Amino acid sequence: MKTEALPVYLIVAAAGEFQPGLAIRLTFEMRRKNNFSHIAFICKSPLTLTKTELLRIFDRVRNLFVVDYADPREAFTGKIEVEALTGSEINAAIKFYHDYAGVVEFPPEYLANLETALQINSICDCIVACEKLY
Are 68 and 35 in contact (CB under 8 A)? Predict the structure, then answer.
């Protein structure tokens, strides 16, 4: 697989019976080591993430788990998947938060957003998709 550049903008949209606060997982495929996953919340559709934001997130994860992740500047394949989280996946993310809150820096309101998403994701009937802009 060939290395691709991260998009300058990643636009994630929800269609259907969307409610603000929907929790999604973005998975970025890497040529080697583990893929990067990032949980985000769509409070207003579409959600826009910049390359700068994504690299800051990836670098923070890589610095904590240096053996597990390759630099996306060199290993990103160009493939990004997006999906709404299930209740069990949100509960797992809440457990991860409680287990690692003293070690990992989480975004402000991350736990509150996960707890809200437990209610929202179970009643939303929507699909999510992303578009890359270079």
Answer: no
- Token couple for 69: 């992740």
Specify burial of residue 111 (Cβ count, 10 A radius: 0-12, 13-18, 19+).
middle
Phi, psi for residue 65 in degrees, rounded to 5: -125, 60
Number of C-beta neighbours around residue 85 at 10 A: 20
* Whether residue 67 has pLDDT greater than 80: yes
> Could you tell me how far CA 77 lies from the centroid of its own chain?
16
Domain locations along the chain: 9-133
The rounded distance, in Å, linking the Cα atoms of 19 and 43 is: 8
Contact indicator for 42, 20 with CB cutoff of 8 Å: yes
Taking all residues of the chain, what is their mean pLDDT, rounded to a whole number?
Answer: 95
